[in-house]
Every structure is written in structure tokens, then in C-alpha cells.
Design brief:
The complex is a heterodimer of chains A (112) and B (109).
Chain A: E1 4-6, E2 10-13, E3 19-25, E4 31-38, E5 42-49, E6 56-57, E7 64-70, E8 73-78, E9 87-94, E10 102-103, E11 107-111
Parallel strand pairs in A: 2-11
Antiparallel strand pairs in A: 1-3, 3-8, 4-5, 4-9, 5-6, 7-8, 9-10, 9-11
Chain B: E1 4-6, E2 11-14, E3 19-25, E4 32-38, E5 45-50, E6 54-58, E7 61-66, E8 71-76, E9 85-92, E10 98-99, E11 103-108
Classes of the chains: A mainly beta (112), B mainly beta (109).
């Protein structure tokens, strides 16, 4: 079974902090994705990566950056956290092609 | 207007009922269609996926795609309390996935 592991289930940070969310997959997948999930808005793609050191903007990249130094690890960075970034963050991975995507259990991030 | 529309519910049914979940979409380029199930406090898990118009069956679940109407459905037969979850449709032209908002389903014993 594919396993996508997100480092934290719950995280509380303060406005202005730099926040790192980590994701690791164990299936040697090429593609990795970061989404946020909000009530009434569903899942929205923040960034994705199709190879090490490669990244592409998704639909809502503003205020975020990513890093992929190793194939199995994809990090999401909130450069200066703001309260409107309070959300559920989901990481996913897939093999060749963008689907099927396998998800981690999410990080519920609160920015105070 | 959203590319993918899905009624968020909530939908509540008695155990044993047939459940119908639906999504409509506007992008004719969508070719791949998926249904994910998400339990509370968990990530989405892939239930079914299909490429073409028509039906695909897997146990109690049937996925239906009508490209001419831009409409997809998921049917759950003999629904069980363990089916209580949020169901998300997702679709793709070739690379990125676009998700519906999700429908919250409760199956009452």
C-alpha cells in the first residue's frame, strides 16, 4: 500500500512565523502535490512537483513556497503565516501521470 | 462559476438504502473521473476511477459517467453505517485534478 505521511496532524503557529509542513511518500512516486481544504471551497491545489527540484504553481500559490530536495519528500513553506492560512493541508503523491493520487491524513494548521 | 459542482449535502439515509451522489462539470477537456471517500479526520482515499462514458462497478459501488451531459454519478447499493463519510468527485484533462466540494453522507443504522 502507498503510504503518504505528513509530519504533524495538528499545528498552532502565530501570525508572521515561517511555517514548514513536511510530507514523505514511500512509493518512489514522481509527482507530489500540496492542497488546502476549506469548507465550501473543497480541495484547492497550492503547488505540485513532478521531479526533484522541479515545482509548478497550482491555483492558489500566493503566500506559499515549496521545496523538493529528495524524491520522497515535499515541503510546503508559509513564508509569513497569516490568519487566512488557517486550514487543513493535504499532501498527495502519484506515479507517472497526475492520478490516481494518494493522500496523507492532513495537517490541521491554526494561525493565531 | 466553479468547473465542478457538487451538492455538499448533508445527505442522511437509512441503512440499506441506495445512495446516489452526483457532480456536474463545465470543462469538456475532462477525460478522467474519480471518486474519493474521506472519513472524518482522515485524508481522501480513492474509491473508483474511470476514463470513458458508461458504467463501472466495484462491489456495492457503481460509477457512471455521461460526457454528453457533463454529469457523473456514484451509486452505493445496500448502504452501511460504515459508508458514512464525505464523498468527493475529481476529474482531470490529463494532469491536474479538479475536485468537487464533497457531499457529506450519513447512513443511519
Amino acid at each position: 500500500d502507498v503510504k503518504v505521511t505528513q509530519s504533524s496532524r495538528y499545528l498552532v503557529k502565530r501570525t508572521g512565523e515561517k511555517v514548514f509542513l513536511e510530507c514523505v511518500q514511500d512509493m518512489d512516486h514522481e509527482n507530489m502535490f500540496w492542497y488546502r481544504q476549506d469548507p465550501g471551497l473543497g480541495l484547492r491545489l497550492i503547488y505540485f512537483s513532478y521531479d526533484v527540484k522541479m515545482k509548478e504553481k497550482g491555483d492558489i500559490p500566493e503566500g506559499y513556497s515549496v521545496s523538493r530536495e529528495k524524491k520522497e519528500r515535499f515541503s510546503l513553506i508559509l513564508e509569513s503565516a497569516s490568519t487566512n492560512q488557517t486550514s487543513m493541508y493535504l499532501c498527495a503523491s502519484s506515479g507517472v501521470g497526475a492520478w490516481p493520487q494518494h493522500f496523507g491524513d492532513g495537517t490541521r494548521l491554526s494561525i493565531l | 462559476q466553479k468547473e465542478v459542482e457538487q451538492d455538499p449535502g448533508p445527505l442522511s439515509v437509512p441503512e440499506g438504502a441506495i445512495v446516489s451522489l452526483n457532480c456536474t462539470y463545465s470543462n469538456s477537456a475532462f477525460q478522467y473521473f474519480m471518486w474519493y471517500r474521506q472519513y472524518s479526520r482522515k485524508g481522501p482515499e480513492l474509491l473508483m476511477y474511470t476514463y470513458s462514458s458508461g458504467n463501472k462497478e466495484d462491489g456495492r459501488f457503481t460509477a457512471q459517467v455521461d460526457k454528453s451531459s457533463k454529469y457523473i454519478s456514484l451509486f452505493i447499493r445496500d448502504s452501511q453505517p460504515s459508508d458514512s463519510a464525505t464523498y468527493l468527485c475529481a476529474m482531470s484533462p490529463s494532469s491536474r485534478l479538479t475536485f468537487g466540494e464533497g457531499t457529506q453522507l450519513t447512513v443511519n443504522p
